What does this fold into?
Amino acid sequence: MAVPTAILDLARPARRIAVLTGAGMSAESGVPTFRDAQTGLWENFDAASLATPEAWNEDAALVWAWYQWRVGLVRRVQPNAGHLALSEWGRNADLQITTQNVDDLHERAGSTVLAHLHGSLFSPRCTDCGLDAEVAEPPEQPIARLDPPTCQNCSGIVRPGVVWFGEMLPEQPWEAATASLREADLLLVVGTSGVVYPAAGLPSLARRHGVPVVEINPDDTDLSDQVDEVWRTTAAVGLPDLVSELQ
Ligand code: APR
It folds into this structure.
């Protein structure tokens, strides 16, 4: 797909590129986005209501089973052509990735992620002492309830290492993300609906610092009006074309 000229004109001279990715980045790998309907065992559950401290306090076994199902799902899929294109671009340019995704597909494509704003499926920790726990093996079959493991150090309950709705973002990734945007020559926003704050405020923060912002998304989003250029394409189609034009 031809890359819009206005986007090439912004990307070609950019020495430092910041990228902000959301669930759409991994959609073509087969990871459902948050606003997609859930399937199978989880079709009657709303992702946004499972990803809360309230859900955990009410029924930790339900929430743990859902996260372990997602661990299994992510392990079975592969990075897509969009993840691979960003990894290739990062080998030839100063490119820093901030993601809202809790999967590890950027890393498996060969990128180093500067900031996982919403944590990771692969960093469970103790609810009591905060110690990192080992990633538990997901069950082979989907299961509706699964008791979370206990901490090896203090016997506290282990929770997913993700940021739930209503929780604070971890400070260090947030600081790293905002610093990277402020210093960038271009911010590329890929596959996010721009409805969940504070991450959704990053594109406007970049613009306040004079950094041009390009959105790559097949659909209109809450950010579309605030960016300099939009490209209505998908991550796995648009990014490889953009990166090959820049080589
Ligand atoms: N390529 C690019 N973008 C895509 C693709 C694709 N193949 N498929 C879908 N999209 C876009 C959709 O148009 C939508 O704008 O990806 C976006 C996905 O939006 P959300 O599901 O809202 O995901 P995200 O923006 O990452 O959600 C933010 O909310 O639920 C919480 O913590 C969770 O990190 C998540 C946060």
The two ends are 16 Å apart (CA to CA). Residues 60-76 form the longest helix (17 residues). The longest strand covers residues 16-21.
